[in-house]
Inverse folding.
């Protein structure tokens, strides 16, 4: 991801004001500060409130799904596509457990709306598994950077994304740069070692 | 001949004590491991619960009609009736099952309930206020004195006089107030289940630490028998002592599934989870302790209190002071009933709080006498209550070397400051049982050489699945990958709940016993085939052969083919009680902390943490070490960050969301050094549970390090910046 993507927002396909009148839970999620609550463009098309068929590109494949304006990306991934690696830990997105990539950028699927992801490339932790396992989850296993494992998929995505951006990260940089994910069992010490192995083992490109 | 069970002799095991990757590591790390929250069934409904907005009230009316009209809502159920008293914020009022998360949230918002307010009390740190509000109850007391009262003397009066005499004789007396706030479990996967009926049989995918023990809890209220229920839990996203029961929300989920004829998932929302699904009791204490000139505590007089919620439930008086048991002591506990969510067992119940409020007193004695805290802890070891004085002394030496204690030590408050930043050292010691729970397993050896073991246990994240596989593979002389481990279902032979560090002992016992018995049966066949006595055979390196003559034997596969058409099935069972060669209980443990405290901001930073821990025979070195790292980090959490913050007026739980409930992040932990204490004598004790002990002493160790840095005690944990600054300010004005 390059910096120039940071401030670009592709045109949105729905009305956030209409959305905010909807679900209390989802509205709270927005208020948590993901940067999505922004001034409306007057030209925005109104969508909803009913279910609408949309196509989401997830892990390289197009999927037809149904979403209301208030439906989060996390809900679609988990319930409609059975991609349950991203976890629902909190509605505010402060745990990092629902981290996925949207257009190459790590975001919390819990605070990202499904309709906002139409036409974008979504990638989930499951894309790091399968026949050819990414070095990051492998390093997590070798260093036992997991206990209950509920935070682990989100952490794996965060580490992968961080190392993609900082391929030669030092331990100090790893300690400073991976504070968006929360683990209750206390796997941080092992996560640091896993990330370091990927850097130092030359497995990071 | 009586069956004999044993472990390989020290130093001869192929797998035990080695580092083994988790056999379920890749599914966990790539997101394909399925937790209860991840089980999706076609046509499934999403259910959520409504919690009481008020901490103490009476429900006067509840109207579900508007909620039932919300598009997408399928079922709305009241969980309280008008007239019911509600005693904490977040107690369950009603439940909505709907087609989507959004419809569910909208349905909950449409429920109309009316409440009559009742008096609220949540100030668990304030004993006098609790007494005035009639919220206290006796929590037990106990007095121990070297001298006995005369026959005609009143015992209480004698104790009073005797304690005073001992205080008068003391070289140093510390008198103070110490405390630790209530915290929550904060399981990242909240409590809940996904339930499905097939005809009259229920499958409950329950997030549970108790796979074998919860089926009956579903059955009875649903009017079926436990045999009609299968509880299933392959993976659990954290429990820490809070997930032993089906709970009302589990039973409700099953009921909703029955009523609607559709599978239902009901997981608690984060805030409800924190408000209602368990907390660790708080502990506050007024204490006077007297010591001789070497810092040896000779007399202790304490009164502590705290809350475990509406039912009271202070820390047991039996663990005060912690591990150390001075010859003369009087201790008293008072329970405080508060309008806060009920407590549940939290990793090492009672111990972390007891350690935090009493080993800080021992450190203050060192400060008062101008002694090195290490020397004071050492001098008090003869009084430890678990008979492990020598183990502690040895572990202290190891820990001090790893911390470089002697070189870094400075008297309390007398270190070199770097601007506003001062550093300090502190330590704590702990104890725990960790004996195995009852456990049964079924081991199958297939004629094609395949091996599997099945038991109704669960893997909390400690690596139970892998440890079981290692025990069986070790016994059969096979690689870990050759053993299939089936756990997480009540359909398997019953095994105990995972609590109190009892799992590793229990499952190692049942699996080693079952595997050794199975091997004896297989060896009979191999012995017959080879024309040798079965007891001359050993299983190692994928073969069964005559000990000392590796050529005279069969490959594992050849040996298993002798079984014919049927697999060999062998039950393995363990019932605790009496000595076993395979497991025991009772551990020590020493921890040291080094912190940096910024006196301008009050921020405490971890520099280094050292944990030295014994655990008997180590099964999987890697996952055992992870337990200790994790415990240290959880300890850093409750020492410096986490607290349940209640509004004293309304009784609201103010920080019941992850955004506000502060926990350490990856950058907050400093350097952590884990040392497994494992002389041969420990190996020979067999397997002992490890989960609880290392989480006990961090509070004391870190608080003592902060006191050493500042020369002032910050009396109540967590040591937040505000509390550190307040203590500095108080010290300045003293």
């Amino acid at each position: 991801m390059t910096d120039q993507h940071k401030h670009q927002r592709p045109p949105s396909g729905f009305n956030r004001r209409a959305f905010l009148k909807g679900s209390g839970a989802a509205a709270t999620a927005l208020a948590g500060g993901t940067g999505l609550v922004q001034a409306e463009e007057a030209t925005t098309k109104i969508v909803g409130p009913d279910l609408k068929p949309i196509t989401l590109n997830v892990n390289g494949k197009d999927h037809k799904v149904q979403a209301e304006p208030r439906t989060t990306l996390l809900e679609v991934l988990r319930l409609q596509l059975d991609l349950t690696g991203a976890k629902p830990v909190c509605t505010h997105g402060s745990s990092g457990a629902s981290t996925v990539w949207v257009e190459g950028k790590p975001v919390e699927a819990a605070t990202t709306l499904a309709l906002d992801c139409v036409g974008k490339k979504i990638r989930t932790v499951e894309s790091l598994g399968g026949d050819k396992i990414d070095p990051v989850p492998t390093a997590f296993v070798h260093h036992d950077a997991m206990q209950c494992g509920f935070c682990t998929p989100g952490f794996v995505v965060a580490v992968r994304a961080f190392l993609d951006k900082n391929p030669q990260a030092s331990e100090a940089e790893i300690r400073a740069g991976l504070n968006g994910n929360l683990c209750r069992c206390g796997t941080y010490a092992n996560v640091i070692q896993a990330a370091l192995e990927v850097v130092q083992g030359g497995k990071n490109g | 001949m009586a069956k004999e069970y044993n472990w390989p002799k020290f130093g001869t095991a192929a797998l035990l004590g080695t580092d083994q990757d988790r056999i379920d590591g890749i599914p966990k790390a790539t997101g394909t491991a399925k937790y209860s929250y991840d089980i999706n069934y076609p046509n499934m409904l999403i259910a959520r619960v409504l919690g009481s907005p008020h901490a103490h009230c009476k429900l006067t009316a509840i109207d579900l009609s508007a909620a039932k009209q919300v598009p997408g809502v399928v079922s709305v159920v009241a969980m309280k009736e008008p007239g019911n008293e509600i005693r904490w914020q977040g107690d369950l009022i009603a439940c909505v099952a709907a087609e989507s998360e959004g419809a569910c949230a909208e349905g909950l918002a449409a429920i109309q309930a009316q409440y009559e307010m009742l008096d609220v009390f949540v100030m668990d740190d304030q004993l006098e206020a609790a007494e005035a509000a009639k919220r206290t109850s006796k929590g037990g007391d106990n007095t121990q004195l070297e001298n006995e009262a005369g026959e005609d003397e009143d015992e209480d009066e004698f104790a009073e006089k005797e304690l005073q005499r001992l205080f008068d004789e003391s070289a140093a007396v510390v008198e103070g107030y110490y405390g630790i706030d209530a915290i929550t479990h904060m399981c990242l996967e909240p409590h809940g289940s996904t339930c499905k009926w097939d005809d009259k049989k229920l499958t409950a995918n329950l997030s549970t630490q108790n796979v074998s023990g919860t089926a009956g809890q579903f059955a009875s209220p649903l009017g079926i028998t436990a045999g009609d229920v299968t509880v299933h839990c392959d993976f659990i996203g954290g429990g820490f002592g809070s997930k032993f029961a089906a709970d009302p929300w589990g039973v409700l989920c099953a009921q909703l599934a029955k009523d609607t004829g559709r599978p239902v998932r009901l997981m608690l929302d984060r805030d409800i989870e924190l408000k209602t699904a368990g907390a660790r009791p708080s502990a506050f204490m007024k204490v006077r302790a007297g010591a001789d000139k070497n810092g040896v505590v000779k007399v202790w007089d304490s009164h502590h209190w705290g809350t475990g919620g509406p039912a009271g439930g202070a820390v047991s008086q039996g663990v005060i002071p912690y591990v150390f048991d001075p010859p003369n002591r009087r201790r008293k506990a008072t329970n405080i009933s508060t309008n806060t969510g009920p407590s549940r067992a939290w990793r090492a119940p009672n111990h972390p709080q007891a350690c935090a409020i009493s080993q800080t007193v021992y450190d203050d004695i060192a400060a008062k006498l101008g002694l090195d805290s290490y020397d004071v802890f050492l001098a008090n070891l003869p009084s430890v209550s678990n008979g492990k004085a020598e183990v502690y002394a040895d572990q202290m030496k190891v820990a001090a070397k790893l911390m470089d204690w002697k070189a870094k030590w400075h008297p309390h408050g007398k270190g070199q400051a770097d601007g506003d930043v001062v550093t300090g050292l502190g330590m704590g010691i702990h104890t725990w049982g960790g004996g195995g729970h009852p456990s049964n397993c079924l081991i199958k050896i297939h004629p094609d050489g395949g091996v599997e073991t099945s038991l109704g246990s669960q893997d909390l994240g400690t690596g139970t699945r892998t440890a079981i596989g290692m025990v069986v593979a070790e016994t059969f002389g096979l690689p870990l990958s050759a053993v299939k481990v089936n756990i997480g279902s009540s359909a398997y032979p019953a095994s105990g709940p995972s609590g109190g560090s009892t799992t590793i002992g229990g499952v190692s016992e049942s699996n080693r016993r079952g595997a050794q018995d199975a091997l004896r049966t297989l060896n009979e066949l191999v012995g017959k085939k080879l024309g040798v006595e079965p007891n001359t055979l050993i299983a190692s390196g994928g073969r069964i052969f005559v000990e000392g003559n590796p050529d005279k034997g069969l490959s594992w596969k050849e040996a298993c083919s002798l079984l014919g058409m049927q697999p060999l099935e062998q039950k393995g069972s363990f019932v605790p009680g009496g000595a076993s060669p395979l497991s025991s209980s009772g551990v020590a443990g020493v921890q040291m902390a080094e912190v940096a405290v910024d006196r301008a901001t009050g921020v405490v930073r971890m520099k280094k943490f050292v944990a030295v821990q014994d655990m008997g025979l180590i099964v999987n070195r890697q996952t055992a070490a992870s337990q200790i790292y994790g415990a240290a980090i959880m300890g850093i959490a409750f020492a410096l960050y986490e607290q349940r913050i209640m509004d004293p007026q309304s009784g609201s739980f103010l920080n019941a969301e992850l955004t506000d409930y502060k926990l350490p992040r990856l950058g907050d932990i400093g350097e952590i050094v884990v040392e497994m204490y494992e002389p041969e004598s420990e190996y020979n004790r067999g397997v002992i549970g490890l989960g609880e002990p290392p989480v006990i002493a961090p509070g004391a160790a870190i608080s003592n390090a902060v006191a050493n840095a500042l020369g002032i005690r910050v009396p109540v944990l967590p040591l937040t910046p505000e509390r550190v600054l307040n203590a500095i300010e108080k010290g300045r004005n003293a």
About this structure: Residues 503-530 of chain B form the longest helix (28 residues).
